[in-house]
Specification:
It is a single chain. By secondary structure, the chain is α/β, with parallel strands linked by helices. It contains 13 helices and 14 strands. The longest helix is centred in the C-terminal third of the chain and has 21 residues. The chain is elongated, with a radius of gyration of 21 Å. Bound molecules: phosphoenolpyruvate (PEP) and manganese (II) ion. Manganese (II) ion binds next to loops.
């Protein structure tokens, strides 16, 4: 069980909200471990002990305490994923960018960093395609290629160029770490570390990525269940990651007409389990340019926190993933449409139900209402 505390509560009778909640838990024989969300600074009390599960009514009593934002019944193996967020903060060159709150974000760029000239054209287009403070530049220095003979990326010089151009255009930069060696270089140069689909469950790499002090963008493994994906995020958070951004990029199915099948069911299922931001990557799911737009819009309609899109000034010349790269004009158009869909989805959205697995399995303890009126149980 997790008690989420509001940050804005002033102490009453010399006791902070945290102390009041801890005492209340202790009266039920429950000890609590304090966890501070490294991205938002929000405090959560992770409860454990023989007093669990609580007697009927106790959950509601805890919820009524001053400063308690929500009481969640988290699966024992996913306490941090259940309690994290909302919002992952990135310290970029032009100020803070927050993913997961305050509207969608666009993370876009070439599959691999190529020439400086192309990257500058791309950065200008990415910045123009999203409202101020809602865009990040992404490009690979180290590329996970199916063939060892394909372009593997420019390595550290590509990462340095990415950072230089990102700084010039005021955009935070994101790149993939393939292994512990490239992780160190990504950590030195970038604002966000990406873990790709092929290494989602490389737990040694996850542990190392968690410790570099940057938010981690965690792509879903193409053969991973939602459960496995969320547990990979738990590995990151439990090892101290400064926030996790999930990214649905398609899973492998029997369908051959797309590179992967964008799993919007999985995205929606994950949204019930966590407030961590979840992006959609229509580019790697589609594999072809013409499918990127419909998948991007569907992702936004399903409640994604933003998009990860590949683009190139001359897609036919791209050294990797040429078939799926949008032109810079297409990027602008798809982003405009995506923002309109996100706005429409926000207007018509039912209160977001955010619940834990335990709650769906055991409804009696679960009727806990969040302060914004939506139910979390
Ligand atoms: C990428 O984002 O460039 C990439 C290789 O994606 P994925 O890990 O989803 O295949
Ligand atoms: Mn790519």
């Amino acid at each position: 069980m997790i008690i989420l505390l509001r940050r804005d509560t002033t102490p009453k009778f010399g006791q902070t909200a945290e102390q009041v909640a801890e005492r209340a838990l202790l009266s039920y024989g429950i000890a609590a471990r304090r966890h501070v969300d490294p991205s938002t600074g929000n405090v959560a009390l992770l409860a454990h002990g023989p007093g669990l599960p609580l007697p009927p009514g106790a959950c509601e009593e805890l919820r009524q305490l001053p400063g308690v934002e929500a009481v969640l019944l988290a699966p024992e193996t996913l306490p941090l994923v259940t309690g994290a967020g909302p919002g992952v903060s990135i310290a970029g060159p032009a100020g803070e960018v927050v993913l997961g709150t305050g509207g969608p974000v666009l993370i876009a760029g070439p599959c691999a960093v190529e020439s400086e000239d192309a990257l500058r054209q791309i950065a200008a287009a990415v910045r123009a395609a999203a409202p101020p403070g809602r865009a990040l530049l992404r490009g690979g220095g180290y590329k996970p290629r199916t063939s060892p003979y394909g372009f593997q990326g420019h390595g550290l010089s590509g990462l340095r160029l990415l950072r230089q151009v990102g700084d010039e255009f005021g955009l935070p930069v994101v790149s993939e770490a393939l292994d512990e060696h490239s992780l160190m270089e990504v950590a030195e140069t970038c604002h966000v570390v990406q873990i790709g689909t092929r290494t989602m469950s490389a737990f040694g790499l996850l542990r190392a990525a968690a410790r570099v002090g940057l938010p981690v963008l965690l792509k879903r493994g193409f053969g991973a269940t939602v459960e496995e994906w969320l547990h990979a995020a738990e590995h990151l958070l439990s090892n101290g990651a400064r926030g996790v951004i999930l990214c649905e990029r398609g899973i492998r199915t029997f369908e051959k007409s797309t590179r992967s099948t964008l799993d919007l069911s999985g995205l929606s299922a994950a949204r019930l389990r966590t407030r961590l931001p979840i992006l959609v990557d229509p580019s790697h799911a589609a594999g072809t340019r013409g499918l990127v737009r419909p998948l991007a819009l569907a992702g936004m309609a399903a409640g994604a926190s933003g998009l990860l899109i590949e683009c190139h000034p001359r897609p036919e010349d791209a050294r990797s993933d040429a078939a799926q790269a949008l032109t810079l004009e297409e990027l602008a158009e798809v982003s405009r449409a995506a923002w309109a869909v996100a706005e429409a989805a926000r207007v018509i959205e039912c209160p977001h139900r955010w619940q834990s697995e335990t709650q769906t399995q055991a409804p009696p303890l679960s009727a806990v209402t969040r302060s914004n009126g939506s139910a979390c149980g």
